[in-house]
Design a protein that fits this description.
Length: about 350
């Protein structure tokens, strides 16, 4: 008789505001942490293209105590060259202890009571990275996600309460919305993706699909992070323009040039980062993996964040062009005055030479 396995993977994904040299970290991390590059096992390498494979670091086991008992989590960190760190707590539920996966899963719904544990995990990762990094300061605004995995469809009779994180008499509308993102490759497997949870059924190995969903969440985090950064940059830009407008005309052009230089560099940096985010991973030949990955991106609404990022870049570009035109106009006016003065001096010298 097949032994049924129910596992829980709890993710928090952080932006650190810096880029990582993964080759240096891979060589410098202690061997007992088993640093290695993430890879997909069940598809050919050409089916999934990853320009820079994240670095996987095993942090070991961490105990979590709660009112209903003690759980031992196996903790793994992934480090992305973009500056992202993903912490995953995994827990294999003993089928002898609970015949209802839903009962165990709901204990972790919303990642309740796990803040301190994730803080400990980040602190542990920092201790290992400290000799190799000048700073390690994850942004407090993280992305969180929970993935449940089973080995046979019969393990979960009703996936909706598990995915929604509560026991309710859900309406047909809600059930339809949750189940419309159910994908399958065969009768023995499926994946259901929602905004902050997913349920994967596979009799063999779920690591590839879990990694795809994690990549999508990393992209969401990066898009949100740089969208917020652009919002702050736009406010700084408007303040700089207002400040420059209040200065005397002879100093205004210098202020405008400084603003143009800063914005030009920022536009170049954000454009490059946006392209790297969009090309973080490409699923090409495997149809099932491509559907799961694309569906996850759609559920997470990454297209809306991409559109917002593009709009703000356009606004900044438009202001950049307006300032550049203003500088060019002032420069042209300055040259015109120089020409007028030179002509006047030439006439003046000509008149003086006639007098003398």
């Amino acid at each position: 008789m097949r032994r049924l396995v129910f596992s829980i993977y709890i993710y928090r994904i952080y932006e650190t505001g810096q880029e990582f040299d993964l080759n240096r970290l891979e060589k410098g991390l202690p061997g007992e942490r088993m640093p290695a590059r993430a890879r997909f096992f069940r598809v050919s390498p050409k089916s999934i293209q990853i320009p820079s494979q994240p670095l996987v670091v095993n942090l070991g086991n961490f105990l979590h105590e709660s009112d209903w008992g003690t759980v031992t989590f196996c903790v793994q960190a992934k480090i992305y060259d973009l500056g992202v760190v993903s912490i995953c707590l995994s827990y294999d539920v003993d089928p002898d202890q609970s015949s209802e996966p839903e009962t165990v899963a709901l204990r972790f719904a919303g990642q309740n009571d796990l803040d301190y544990l994730f803080t400990r995990c980040l602190r542990s990762l920092h201790e290992h990275l400290q000799p190799l990094l000048e700073k390690f300061d994850p942004d407090p605004d993280f992305e969180d996600y929970i993935i449940y995995t089973i080995t046979h469809p019969s393990e979960v009779q009703d996936p909706v309460p598990l995915l929604m994180g509560e026991r309710l008499d859900f309406s047909e509308t809600v059930r339809t919305q949750v189940m419309r993102n159910r994908l399958s490759y065969s009768e023995a497997d499926f994946a259901i993706v929602t905004w902050d949870t997913a349920l994967i059924c596979d009799p063999e190995d779920t690591s590839d699909l879990r990694d795809l969903i994690e990549f999508a969440n990393v992209q969401l985090l990066e898009l949100r992070y740089y969208d917020n950064q652009l919002t702050r940059e736009m406010q700084v830009m408007y303040n700089d323009i207002d400040g420059a407008a209040a200065t005397p005309n002879y100093r205004k052009m210098r202020h405008y040039r400084r603003i143009i230089g800063n914005r030009m560099q920022m536009i170049a940096d954000i454009t490059e980062i946006r392209e790297r985010i969009e090309n973080l991973i490409k699923v090409t030949e495997d149809v099932y993996y491509a559907r799961v990955y694309q569906t996850t991106l759609e559920v997470l609404r990454t297209d809306q964040w991409t559109a917002s990022l593009n709009r703000k870049l356009q606004v900044i570009q438009q202001n950049y062009n307006l300032l550049l035109n203003e500088v060019n106009i002032q420069h042209s006016n300055f040259l015109e005055w120089i020409i007028i003065i030179l002509i006047a001096l030439e006439f003046g010298f000509a008149i003086l030479s006639q007098v003398w």
